[in-house]
Design goal:
CATH class of one domain: Alpha Beta
Shape: globular
Strand content: 5-15%
Number of helices: 6
Largest sheet: 4 strands, antiparallel
CATH superfamily of one domain: NADH Oxidase
CATH topology of one domain: NADH Oxidase
Oligomer: single chain
Order of helices and strands: HHEHEHEHEH
Distance between the termini: 13 Å
């Protein structure tokens, strides 16, 4: 099958604004590929708390992320207290959804050079959450001094990102979130055929399939 023949994911377009996290039955397991391509960032959550066992399962998956030279340069500050989440929501320009999340995981790293590994860790965490039916959305804490005060983080560790976790609201995304989504992603996902070059840049022709 050529790249141009690949079926398009119906959730790649504007309609993705209505997508909710997967609902798993008892004992159900999601296909890993389905988790990856189905993951969407959501900022509107229910009031349902995340069971501690589920939260630890998500954190353990993040802990297992790969890192350069296996340095594992991360630590996690898990914020479940409602008042602390509300304070944290004032530490970033687009962080309001942290206040309504069930939990917020702040990833700390040893130095700015570890940002790539922080990204790997963050994505693993969010995919693990999605596989459990829990939505997420990362955010930058722009006001570093204020965030350190809220989190109790002294000078030293770098605050890489904060990740909101929560069960998606049955109504889907909120009105502000839907409006922003329409502006930012109305064009949908770029087709795979527009992104892949074979063997040399500029060569769009895929190699012949082997027998």
């Amino acid at each position: 099958m050529r790249l141009l023949d690949q079926p398009r994911d119906s959730r790649d377009g504007p309609g993705a604004g209505r997508l909710l996290a997967p609902r798993l039955g008892d004992g159900a397991r999601m296909d890993p590929y389905g988790v990856i391509v189905g993951k969407r960032d959501l900022r509107t959550y229910t009031d349902q708390p995340i069971p501690s066992g589920t939260l630890l399962r998500i954190l353990n998956a993040a802990r297992r992320s790969g890192s350069s030279r296996n340095r594992q340069p991360w630590e996690f500050v898990v914020v479940t207290d409602r008042e602390e989440r509300a304070r944290l929501a004032h530490c970033g320009r687009f962080a309001a959804h942290l206040a309504t999340a069930a939990a917020v995981v702040v990833i700390l790293i040893e130095s700015p050079r570890d940002q790539f590994d922080a990204g790997r860790c963050a994505q693993t965490l969010m995919l693990a959450a999605w596989s459990q039916g829990i939505a997420s959305c990362p955010v930058t804490l722009h006001h570093d001094v204020r965030a350190r005060e809220v989190l109790g983080v002294a000078a030293g560790p770098v605050i890489a990102t904060a990740i909101a976790l929560g069960y998606p609201h049955p109504r889907g995304r909120g009105p502000i979130e839907r409006m922003a989504l329409g502006i930012l992603t109305g064009r949908g996902r770029k087709p795979l055929a527009d992104l892949v070059h074979w063997n040399r840049y500029g060569n769009r022709r895929a190699p012949a399939a082997s027998a």
